[in-house]
Structure to design on (162 residues):
């Protein structure tokens, strides 16, 4: 009876350890969430990006809130002006085949929007692959740690049972 109780307790500990190290979202979901966040944050949303984030978090259960919100750290207030400047010039190259040297507010806005959509798309694709690789690498390392911990716990439980 004591052996059966011990085995049940041991299985419960191992089960709880696995749950503790189990991730809620797949690597794809985390990378996609981060990528979407980078795309939205790179756009000139004038602060409404957080409203879009809230809608996405409410609408899609598979979205990683942490990954989505962490994109704000990448596209911080120091980086965004550089993205916008590059977007205006890139938009000018796309639309007029030259850099955007104009003072016309409508042209600048059009260059910004066109260039920013392209740059935000490129940044989000890069962000997806970076995040996917980072999650995979972390989980591989983490799984090795989990296996080590499980081995130690099992060895200690076996000592207690002997």
């Amino acid at each position: 009876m004591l052996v059966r109780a011990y085995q049940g307790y041991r299985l419960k500990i191992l089960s709880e350890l696995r749950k503790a190290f189990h991730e809620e979202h797949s690597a794809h979901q985390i990378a996609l969430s981060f990528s979407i966040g980078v795309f939205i944050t790179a756009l000139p949303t004038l602060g409404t990006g957080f409203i879009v984030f809230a809608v996405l978090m409410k609408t899609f259960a598979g979205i990683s809130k942490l990954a989505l919100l962490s994109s704000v750290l990448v596209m911080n207030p120091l980086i965004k002006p550089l993205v916008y400047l590059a977007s205006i010039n890139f938009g000018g190259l796309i639309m007029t085949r030259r850099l955007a040297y104009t003072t016309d507010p409508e042209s600048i806005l059009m260059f910004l929007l066109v260039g920013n959509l392209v740059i935000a798309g490129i940044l989000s694709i890069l962000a997806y692959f970076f995040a996917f690789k980072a999650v995979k690498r972390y989980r591989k390392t983490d799984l090795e740690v989990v296996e080590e911990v499980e081995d130690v716990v099992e060895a200690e439980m076996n000592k207690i049972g002997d």
In short: The helical segments are 2-21, 27-42, 49-59, 65-74, 80-96, 105-161. Residues 26-142 form one domain.
